[in-house]
Amino acid sequence: MAVTIFTQTSCTSSKKALQWLKENKISFTEKRITSEQLTLPEFKMILGMTEDGTDEIISTNSKDFKNLNCDINQLSIQELYDIVKDHPKMLRSPILVDEKRLQVGYNDMDIRRFIPRKVRAYELYEMQRLSLEG
Fold it and tell me: InterPro entries in the record, alphabetically (predicted)?
């Protein structure tokens, strides 16, 4: 179960997420969207996995978004993709995905969902065991 992480150059959250993946020995593929263009299938996959649609992945505080002067909710997926392709810094980062999960941004607790379930179950068991001993 490989993770794909979409990052941006000089993004602190992206760096933290990459470091966390390495420390937890989780296999991943990095795609730096500021230098390697996001494909339409990748964009559709990410958008399809969101719970809040564009609100979850578009950074409305970014300069690129503010300079758009358009309502992105009125755009087709193709039109939105064309804008994101030309202005990748509009996307929040990092974006981590695997077959079942999506995480936008870096959060110490939420990123743990990418640890295999067996490992998380074992860690919980160990914590419970230690708390009973102490």
Answer: Arsenate_reductase-like, Thioredoxin-like_sf, Tscrpt_reg_Spx/MgsR
Catalytic residues: 11
CB-neighbour burial class of residue 134 (10 A; exposed 0-12, middle 13-18, buried 19+): exposed
- Which ranges in 27-71 belong to alpha helices (H)? 40-49, 54-57, 63-66
133: tokens are: 């001993």
Cβ atoms 99, 2 nearer than 8 A? no
DSSP-assigned beta bridge partners for residue 103: 96
Q: What are phi and psi of 91, to 5 degrees?
A: -80, 140
Report whether 38 contacts 15 (CB < 8 A): no
pLDDT tens digits for range 119-131: 667 677 778 888 8
